[in-house]
Amino acid sequence: MHPVIVAHGGVGSGIEYKEDVVSAVKAGYEALLAGKSALEAVIITVKALEDNVKFNAGYGSYYNLAGEIEMDASVMTSDGRCGAVACVHGVKNPVLLARAVMDTPHVLMAGRGAVEYAKKIGLEFADLRSEKADKKLAEVKKKIREGYYPQWSEKMKNIDLSEYLGDTVGAVAMDMQGKFAAANSTGGISLKLPGRVGDSAIIGAGIYAGSEGAVVTTGIGEEIIKKVLAKAVYDKLAQLGAMKACRWGVDQYDEGIPVGIIAVDKKGYGVAANKQMAWHVLP
Ligand code: GLY
């Protein structure tokens, strides 16, 4: 089978992100052509995006409102294996930690225990702070001081959510054996309380893979979790095909809620977003 890989740089990411996404996709595609698995390929692609400060994942992650980096990531394959991490600090590549969780009896590890596990298995740690994230936190705090940011009890109504998006990254692939895999990684939305977990760590919400294909989502995690979006789109793959299934998923949201979805299935790939989104597919 001819392999395919798609990746995105987050809903809201503009044309200036495109070349970086293209080079990350090329790295994953070369791995597929060399006979590596879909899982290895999506990890290579997402790791490249995590290592690029432009994206809100790994190095370059936005801070929570306390000025800390707390990252989420997950991986899943068509045989139903999955691993995810939430609220992890300092781990250079959370996608590698999510992959490692797949080899434990667990599906999701969070916070201190997940970080301890990363140390135990020898994953790399790094100072992930960036000028970009310093600037974003200052902007968010200024808006809060100006009263632009309403009470949490108002559930973030009346604000332009797109300003708080990070450029969550994700990839989906099919390998030469026809197996599917998905991976994603994020620093989360910039407007978040410490301890908040988004869709990227939640199997079925931000990510899903099975015998029909693989799906990842990007957008406001709270909204994506409520609709269990990745699984909902996955369930439409057989009936609609990847492109229409992604469009169907985006159409479940009002325009004011930014959302993007990428997918692969047995016949091709799908991409849809209700805002600009840098993405790329190979071949
Ligand atoms: N979609 C990323 C997040 O909400 O955390």
Give a brief rundown of this model.
This protein has 283 residues and is an alpha+beta fold. The chain has helices at 18-33, 38-50, 94-101, 111-120, 131-145, 221-226, 229-234, 237-240, 242-250; strands at 4-11, 71-77, 82-88, 108-110, 169-174, 180-186, 207-210, 213-219, 259-265, 269-273, 277-282.
Structure description:
This protein has 283 residues and is an alpha+beta fold. The protein is built from nine helices and eleven strands. It binds glycine. Residues 168, 186, 188-189, 198-200, 218-221 line the site of glycine.
- What's the number of domains? 1
Q: Name the strands of the widest sheet in spatial order.
A: 4-3-2-6-5-1-11
Q: Are any ligands bound, and if so which?
A: glycine
* Main pleated sheet: 7 strands, mixed
The CATH topology assignment is Glutamine Phosphoribosylpyrophosphate, subunit 1, domain 1
CATH class term? Alpha Beta
**How far is the first residue's CA from the last residue's CA?**
12 Å
Percent in strands = 15-25%
> What does the average pLDDT come to?
92
List the helices and strands and how they pair.
Elements: E1 4-11, H1 18-33, H2 38-50, E2 71-77, E3 82-88, H3 94-101, E4 108-110, H4 111-120, H5 131-145, E5 169-174, E6 180-186, E7 207-210, E8 213-219, H6 221-226, H7 229-234, H8 237-240, H9 242-250, E9 259-265, E10 269-273, E11 277-282
Parallel strand pairs: 3-4
Antiparallel strand pairs: 1-5, 1-11, 2-3, 2-6, 5-6, 7-8, 8-9, 9-10
The protein binds glycine.
